[in-house]
Amino acid sequence: xxxxxxxxxxxxxxxxxxxxxxxxxxxxxxxxxxxxxxxxxxxxxxxxxxxxxxxxxxxxxxxxxxxxxxxxxxxxxxxxxxxxxxxxxxxxxxxxxxxxxxxxxxxxxxxxxxxxxxxxxxxxxxxxxxxxxxxxxxxxxxxxxxxxxxxxxxxxxxxxxxxxxxxxxxxxxxxxxxxxxxxxxxxxxxxxxxxxxxxxxxxxxxxxxxxxxxxxxxxxxxxxxxxxxxxxxxxxxxxxxxxxxxxxxxxxxxxxxxxxxxxxxxxxxxxxxxxxxxxxxxxxxxxxxxxxxxxxxxxxxxxxxxxxxxxxxxxxxxxxxxxxxxxxxxxxxxxxxxxxxxxxxxxxxxxxxxxxxxxxxxxxxxxxxxxxxxxxxxxxxxxxxxxxxxxxxxxxxxxxxxxxxxxxxxxxxxxxxxxxxxxxxxxxxxxxxxxxxxxxxxxxxxxxxxxxxxxxxxxxxxxxxxxxxxxxxxxxxxxxxxxxxxxxxxxxxxxxxxxxxxxxxxxxxxxxxxxxxxxxxxxxxxxxxxxxxxxxxxxxxxxxxxxxxxxxxxxxxxxxxxxxxxxxxxxxxxxxxxxxxxxxxxxxxxxxxxxxxxxxxxxxxxxxxxxxxxxxxxxxxxxxxxxxxxxxxxxxxxxxxxxxxxxxxxxxxxxxxxxxxxxxxxxxxxxxxxxxxxxxxxxxxxxxxxxxxxxxxxxxxxxxxxxxxxxxxxxxxxxxxxxxxxxxxxxxxxxx
Length: 736
Ligand code: C2E
Ligand code: CA
Ligand code: CA
Hints:
This protein is of the alpha+beta class. It is built from 23 helices and 34 strands. Helix 8 (207-214) packs antiparallel against helix 9, helix 9 (216-233) packs antiparallel against helix 10 and helix 14 runs parallel beside helix 16 (439-450). It is elongated and about 130 Å long. The site of ligand C2E has 23 residues, from strand 15, helix 13, helix 14 and strand 20.
């Protein structure tokens, strides 16, 4: 560009001057004008800023050369183009201002410091532009004149700062602040459109152990790897994964209320997070628990929903860790009960409410009792017998398992010392007991006090002892082996089931979990092939095998055929008190003949609760006797023909379409149209629920309405029931 042409331009610009909007201008002499142009050019060349002008149609009439260069174009090619063509006017959530440029130009108003993205290929550059409208002598708008400068660096640092404020610097996941904001925004928007949104809370099991044994840098590395795995597993559209702090993660999944699918995701998370990690050269394993809540069913706003998901997480940890749980309204009373149990568990030992019973483990060939498993029992003065399945996880969670486990160990050793011959005693050891550096000393003491020979004590460990640091684990194994006690791998097949554990750890026995036994005799089941391979592996490694939970003759035959060495199950005996053990072993050996049904009867979940049955426009009340994935047995209606369709109302918006398949007297067997899914707690639930918005429209506000017109409509003539209803409380209340 020649100085002359600029001069010309500036003269022209001056000529169109004196408008109301234009800034007052200074009259310059020819020499001054020349200087002014040189200064302007110096300024443009310095890169500090640039100038632009447009005509009344918004077409570029002047642009600094440096801008044309940046855009990779000739100035002449830019002149005459619409001003907007220099910028990318895409929608950017972070910067709503950007979209206002065309609008501003059309209003012909002054604007300043508008941030726009330069239309440069492959490079992100941001400019701040200002513009002042110009007018001719008659006051008519003639176009814009303005300036611009590069703000890329400032924008970048602003963005970094806002990233820092929204993301967790360790894992790169969203932080608590961002998760909260996104969840609130999503739920507020979804309330209007009545869409659903799921929230999962995940917590690592035994993370503290890793931090304590391997150190904080290793803990940080582990969290990073956990985050990476989560990002690979959860890829649902629109989802966001966050770390709320510590080892607490949150996942938001919009538009998902299918509990079958959510259960699958949760199960995948737990399995994948539980695979071993390589950290600073050492191997480490961790577990995970998940709680799930779904809006609008379990909460409408983010506080409610998070509270529900938290409660579900609390319940899943109480259920023994490595599990997921859906929120349900019953969890409130369950949490209350757990708190009570936890409270009273502290005193249970001191108040002599605990005792130990022993379940025989039998040699498959001779039917002789070869060992007995010590199982803790708690007789609560008011609540009665509380199952160890309930109080052991609570004891673990509340840090009470150490004292309880030590007590069981001492008691079992003392009682077993009086048994004749070489009959062994097996004692369950929790992962946290095992993880305690003083555990070997506790075992040594129990042996010394009782006088029991070490080879008669068998410690039952689950795969969760491998959680945490590998070195500390091998160390404890070595100490225990030095004492001469035997080690059994309990519940094999339920946990991480990694065969590599068997190669590394000095186990003397594998206990095959009862979940593998079920269905073993069905031709389509792969369990017998799996058991066969466990047995041959155990034989090769010179380990014993025990199959747990054998109840039926066909299962026993199968175990014998598969070469399993020992059996533990109700077909031989359930756990008995110590005096019965002593009495049975008076003669020196104890032989038990197997006694049980010829075939295992598939477990029906025996339940006893009221459900609603809706037929046409009438709702009946019935008592549900048992429930399976595919159907349920109900009592309360009479004269119901086979083939009658019903909608079963389980409460909380859980409705299942069903058909009567069997009917006798007041009892009907119903088959569901769509199978129920796992609720994570060993129970079942419907895949979908009826939205509370719809329930609010059609039904009375209480979750389970009584019998009568359905949907209840005040003022309408009452519906006439087609079937007779008998009062369900009068029906027998005890189910075999
Ligand atoms: P586990 O170690 O797998 O113990 C076997 C459980 O299976 C026992 O339940 C036993 O009664 C049950 N069982 C035995 N045979 C059969 C059968 O044929 N069919 C069925 N369905 N079940 C059978 P229990 O006594 O309720 O114990 C539950 C769990 O509580 C135990 O599972 C164990 O993990 C834990 N536990 C019990 N006592 C202690 C203890 O002193 N310390 C620790 N850490 N855990 C314990
Ligand atoms: Ca056991
Ligand atoms: Ca077991």
